[in-house]
Amino acid sequence: MDEIFGYFPYLASEQQAQFIRMGDLYRHWNERINVISRQDTDQLYIRHILHSLAIARVVSFHPGTRILDVGCGGGFPGIPLAVLFPESRFTLVDSIGKKIGVVRSVAEGLGLRNVDARQVRAEDISGKFDFVVNRAVTQMPRLVEWVWDKITPGGTNVLPNGILSLKGGDLTEELAAAGKPCVLFDIADFFDDPFFETKKIVYLFR
User: What predicted TM-score, i.e. pTM, was given to this entire model?
Assistant: First the structure.
């Protein structure tokens, strides 16, 4: 928790309270459903919440921005980002009903009014979005195939609309196959913890 407040010192009191409650809610659900690795429970704030918030280091979503979290699992990166950007709109989707049930419960427990959680396959999502976010949900060429036509060109944020993926490892072949303009951001440039040494944000833009 100290790391969250240290890296994001200007949180409103309500946001601070939401991040504190977030840990309790995920520990509660992880005892019932394997939302995250049981080995990671003690590292929830670093390996899941702070990792999700890395996206906020490259773009601060303007009010009204529409963000789609594909394959959100138990709600990462969408739920932490929804707390950080309460005036943006987040749609979190996953094909597994139990995980979407956790997302809905956590969003309700945090009092989030900007989260819509849906049980749906990525390729079947309807609607248009400014950004698609995800955490290593699939290979980039497949993700592009699923969502590229759902991203509205242009945008009003500091980055043009596109995909922001939390990834790791050697991405050379994967990104070449995706066939889209791409920028990589090293998360270790934003956060000091050794966990982030090989972690990146992959940004594909229209």
Answer: 0.96
